[in-house]
Each structure stands twice: as C-alpha cells, then as structure tokens.
Design a protein that fits this description.
Layout: H1 3-31, H2 36-64, H3 66-84, H4 90-117, H5 124-175, H6 198-207, H7 213-224, H8 233-247, H9 251-255, H10 257-276, H11 281-308, H12 315-344, H13 346-370
Helix pairs in contact: 1-2, 1-4, 1-5, 1-7, 2-3, 2-4, 2-12, 3-4, 3-5, 4-12, 5-8, 5-11, 6-12, 6-13, 7-13, 8-11, 10-11, 10-13, 11-12, 12-13
Length: 380
C-alpha cells in the first residue's frame, strides 16, 4: 500500500473507533449510574489530552517524519482499547479516554500533515477534502456499528471490536513509509502554536464549543421524545458529509477558502437549531443533512487556508495548532453544554451549540476583514 492510502485507512479506522465510543460510552456511563455532567467530562478529557499534544505533534512531524510520530500513537491506542475491558466505573472510563486523545493526536494529526505536504498547491483543497472523506466514512460507520454490536453483544462486544480495530491500525503503521523529516525544523518542545494558524484557530475554538452535543445527547434527546436512539441519524449525517465532500472538493480552490466557509458555517448553525426542536423523523433528517453538508467543507477548507499561509518548514505545527483548536473548543464546551443540559434540558444544549457556531462565523469574518495580505510563504 502507498503512503497516502495507508494514511487514509488509518484515519478511517481511528474515526470508527472514536465515534463508536462517542455514542456508546455515554449510554454505558448512564447505565453505570453516571450523570450528564460526567458525559461532558468523557469528551473533555479526550479532547483535552489531544489539544495539549497536537501543536507539538506537528512540530515533531516536521522534524522527524510521519512514521516516527505515528508508531507510539498506535501503541497507545492498542493499550487504551485493551484497558476498556477492565474499566468498571464512570471515572475509570473518563480517565481512559485520555489515551484515546493522545492516540488521536499522534495518528490523525500526522496523517493530515503527510497529505497536505504531498498535495499540489492548486489542488490542495481538493486533496484534503478527499482525505477527510475517509474520516467521514469512519464517522458514518462508527455509531451504526456501535448500536448494532450493542444489540447483539452489549458493550463488551463493542470493546472487543475496537480492540481489533486498534490492532489493525498498529499493523498498518508498521508497514508505513513516510518521507524523512527536516532536520532544520524546530524539534522537541517548541512553541505551543504557529502564528500563521492563530486567526483561523481562534475562530475554530468558538465554533466547536458545542460540537460534541450531537454525539453525546442526540440519542438521549430522541429517546426522550419517543423515537428510540435513532442509530440511523449518524450514518445519514456522515453520508451527507461524504457526498458533499466529493461534489464540492474543488470549491475552495476555485472560489476561495472563506467564500466556502461562510455557507458551511451557516448550514451547521441551522442544523443545530433544527435539533433543538422537539424530535421528529423529518426534523432529524433535515438536521442530519444540514450538519453533514456544513461539516463537509469546514475542516478541510480551514486546513487548506492555513497551509496556504504557512512556510513549508512550519506546516506541521500549523496544522497541529488548528487541530488543537478543535480540541480546545470541545474541552471547554463539552462540560458547559452538559451542565446546561442537566439544568435546562436537551434543547438548551443544541441552542447553545448553534449560538457558538454563529459566533465563530462572526469572529472568522472579523479576523479576515482585519487581516492584511502579507508575502507568500517562502516555499510550497
């Protein structure tokens, strides 16, 4: 298998694992007597661990190459999946999710850097959109697999399957070959962020404050409304993401990054607003379509935007900064949204999530308006 194909396979499998656990662990924690607030911390600890590492991971990838960074990530992923089998309390599961966050930082961030580095400048947006189709496939399969496995063998069967998938990721990394790193790039514990990525990252922090709401609370919201856990919602949402990424893969190359980001964020805002209403099948279908189409262009376009503005030697750190911004938003927002749901119900959580996306869009436009075009990076 080629380098890009292995990176695509790895990110697909990592996303299957992550989103299977994102939908099944909240239900398992409730069954163990956990609270909605603990569900919020389940997401916060995963993203908190990742956000501390991602910028450093980007710098390490610049200097040492992708495989050297991904190998320990695969090991940590396997150990975390094995440990799930012996965890027995909500706090134990919350603690273990730090391992998933570290593995995600070492694996998914590095894979995106490898793809960005090998993409031609005039088709970078297209290449990244296609790469992130693999993550969308994982998002589509993970929740559906989780509910199907739970119906057949409970949470124990889910843990067995994610352990097997973790071992498959490790096998792929063992045969992966990536370009050597750049000895001149900063290594070790460098700056915690890239200045080239700060404006887009600041907006992304705000946008993602409520991003976990759908995975953490939609099944519970739908069940409370008499619709069951609506396992079909997540494949539908991810299916819309995949179709839109394929159809619109060249949009940001042709029309500009910001011109694509604006309608994407409007669609996500509207999707969260639709989910705040009392759950109905037509409403959930509309919400899935809006969220899927909006999310299809959000992250790949932001990655392309910052790579356009970053010198080659610092691209890894820049992508790591943007990835960390996603985690910062989730880590800050997940406990707050969970507390809001605990005190005011599910609709309040979705309304707050919609408000966060709208505020992030406003911040992005303000920062872009204030930005003065500077010289292009020295090399591409």
């Amino acid at each position: 298998m080629g380098t890009i194909r292995i990176c695509v396979a790895v990110t697909a499998l990592v996303h299957v694992i992550t989103y299977l656990l994102n939908t099944q662990l909240p239900l398992h924690l409730v069954a163990l007597g956990g609270s909605h607030a603990q569900i919020g911390w389940l997401f916060a600890i995963t993203t908190g661990a990742a956000m501390l590492l991602r910028p450093q991971v980007g710098g390490w990838t610049d200097r040492y190459g992708g495989r050297a960074v991904m190998l320990p990530g695969a090991g940590i992923l396997v150990l975390t999946m094995l440990a799930l089998h012996v965890a027995a309390t909500p706090l134990a599961f919350i603690g273990l999710m730090a391992g998933l966050g570290v593995a995600n930082a070492l694996l998914s961030t590095t894979g995106s850097i490898v793809v960005a580095d090998e993409s031609p400048v005039d088709r970078r947006g297209e290449s990244l959109a296609l790469y992130y189709v693999a993550s969308s496939v994982g998002v589509a399969l993970g929740p559906a697999m989780g509910f199907a496995l739970a119906a057949r063998g409970g949470i124990a069967l889910n843990f067995t399957v994610v352990t097997g998938l973790g071992l498959a990721v490790a096998a792929l990394i063992l045969v992966l070959r990536t370009a050597p790193g750049n000895p001149g790039a900063p290594g070790g514990l460098g700056p915690p962020w890239s200045r080239h990525a700060v404006p887009a990252s600041a907006a992304l922090v705000v946008i993602t404050l409520g991003a976990a709401t759908v995975y953490a609370f939609l099944p519970l919201h739908a069940a409370a409304g008499g619709l069951g856990h609506v396992a079909w919602f997540f494949p539908l949402m991810s299916g819309c993401t995949i179709v839109c990424r394929l159809l619109l893969r060249r949009a940001s190359d042709r029309f500009g990054r910001v011109r694509v980001l604006v309608p994407a964020l409007v669609a996500i805002t509207l999707g969260q607003l639709v989910l705040a209403a009392p759950p109905t099948v037509p409403g959930l279908v509309l919400g899935a379509a809006l969220l899927g189409c909006g999310n299809s262009m959000l992250y790949p376009t932001l990655v392309a935007l910052i790579v356009d503005r970053t010198p080659t030697a610092e691209r890894g750190r820049a992508i790591g900064t943007l990835s960390a911004a996603w985690d910062v938003g989730l880590a800050l927002g997940s406990p707050l949204i969970a507390l809001l749901v605990d005190t005011h119900g599910f609709p309040a959580g979705f309304l707050a999530s919609a408000l966060a996306v709208a505020a992030g869009l406003a911040l992005l436009l303000l920062l872009e308006h204030r930005r003065r075009p500077g010289p292009l990076p020295a090399s591409h």
